[in-house]
Design a protein that fits this description.
366 residues; mainly alpha; 19 helices; globular
Length: 366
């Protein structure tokens, strides 16, 4: 498919929105303690497991989309600056507002941490994502020098090394120790980038040959069945730290079923043909929505202290409550990020003539 024509489509933009919704549902289940509450109804248990498991699926899909559009391209310096500035604005802005309204204590240490969010890992995802972004030129250069067969072997080797061991045998203590390092998830992000790059360059014939309706049914029925199994395992406490630990299976990027569904859902949307300008506009604010909601001053406090989700633990109303709250978060984040883009970001970039300076830097680098 022609790249410019594909760029006008909204299929991946819709998938980007869905991925951020998955992450928000995950945070809803995580930060309000819903997943660990034993006094909920079966429907609520299923919903909480769906949210808890879907967060990492959403993260994986987000990286797959990035890889699909960035593979084989020269990274623009202006994009790096825009990404860093967006993270900076939300990190520092939310902290300053928190101090002004008495929701956070002022300290020089926290001010510096908020002003340097990537260096101090204020957002784990954005720290890893930013370094993945910086790695793109090296990854693309390496990929350009290997053929399809070598590319496939590389992905298989990384998959075996990064996914299989962590799915078969898992020790919570060991993995937690690894995960404390800010860039511990960078290897799996690189693997996801390489997978989507391979899809862009060569495709996957088996998935291309499946009827679109069958692929859709596989993803819907297969994923819901997977969630049901996890719910039953959690409900009857049939697992513990060790082989097929449910806590690992439902929360890690490396979980084999998370990887499989990430790829098949991504491929489903790759084959869809959707055009909608509003979807494209909303999609452009998804990162801002994530940054607004995931700040440590807004995430846990929002779910536990502001909306009191614990009041609905034992009723199915919590599903409606989650839908309303997440819709409000998306709407609020959408408006705030559009205001940030048009009232702050664009005027700053015009004032410093960023695009022209970035072009000179790109020409020098390339």
């Amino acid at each position: 498919m022609d790249e410019k024509k594909e760029g006008r489509l909204s299929n991946f933009e819709l998938l980007r929105i869905i991925s951020i919704v998955m992450i928000l549902i995950h945070h809803y289940s995580l930060h309000n303690g819903l997943i660990s509450n034993i006094n909920t109804t079966p429907i609520v248990k299923f919903f909480s497991m769906f949210g808890f498991a879907s967060g990492k699926l959403g993260v994986n899909i987000f990286i797959l989309i990035t890889g699909y559009f960035m593979i084989g391209k020269n990274i623009k310096f202006s994009k790096i600056v825009k990404l860093w500035l967006e993270i900076f604005m939300y990190s520092l802005g939310i902290y300053v507002i928190g101090v002004i309204f008495g929701k956070a204590e002022f300290s020089i240490k926290e001010l510096i941490r908020s002003a340097l969010p990537i260096s101090f890992n204020k957002y784990w995802f954005m720290t890893v994502y930013f370094f993945l972004y910086l790695s793109i030129p090296l990854l693309n250069k390496y990929i350009s020098k290997i053929n399809q067969k070598e590319y496939k072997k590389l992905i298989i080797k990384l998959f075996i090394f990064l996914v299989i061991p962590f799915t078969i045998i898992y020790k919570a203590e060991a993995y937690t120790a690894i995960e404390t390092y800010p860039l511990s998830q960078l290897p799996i992000f690189i693997l996801l980038y390489l997978i989507s790059g391979y899809i862009k360059l060569y495709g996957i014939k088996r998935l291309d040959n499946i009827k679109l309706s069958y692929l859709m049914m596989f993803n819907i029925i297969g994923y819901l069945t997977y969630i049901l199994i996890l719910t039953l395992i959690k409900q009857f406490e049939l697992t513990h730290n060790g082989i097929f630990c449910v806590e690992f299976m439902q929360t890690r990027q490396q979980a084999i079923f998370t990887m499989i569904f990430s790829i098949t859902i991504f491929y489903l949307f790759k084959r869809l043909k959707i055009k909608n300008n509003f979807i494209n506009i909303l999609s452009s604010t998804t990162l801002g929505i994530y940054l607004l909601q995931s700040h440590d001053l807004t995430s846990a406090k929002l779910y536990r202290d502001l909306v009191h989700t614990s009041n609905y633990y034992e009723t199915s109303f919590i599903i409606i409550h989650a839908f309303i709250l997440i819709s409000m978060i998306i709407l609020t984040g959408f408006i705030i990020d559009l205001l940030r883009i048009y009232l702050i970001e664009k005027p700053i970039f015009r004032a410093i003539n960023l695009d022209e300076k970035a072009k000179k830097i790109n020409d020098f680098i390339n």
